[in-house]
Amino acid sequence: NNLKNLSLACLNYEAQIKFLPPAAQFDNNEAPENSDNFRANWVISILPFIEQQPLANAINPANPISHANNRTARGTMLN
To answer: The pTM is what?
Structure first.
């Protein structure tokens, strides 16, 4: 059931944004193979579609996911 809900969230994201959520994102000047400055990924992108808008809002997109400002949101466990 959880996998079905995640799949539906990805499809709802695609219906609204017109492409599937990204596996990973980096800054334009970052080489993915040498970077640990990940930006929003598919998990973060689908949060609003799994009724987790407050958690999505808690993530500061100006900073990498690994940044201290995103630590609390990053460490939040979902049911």
So the answer is: 0.84
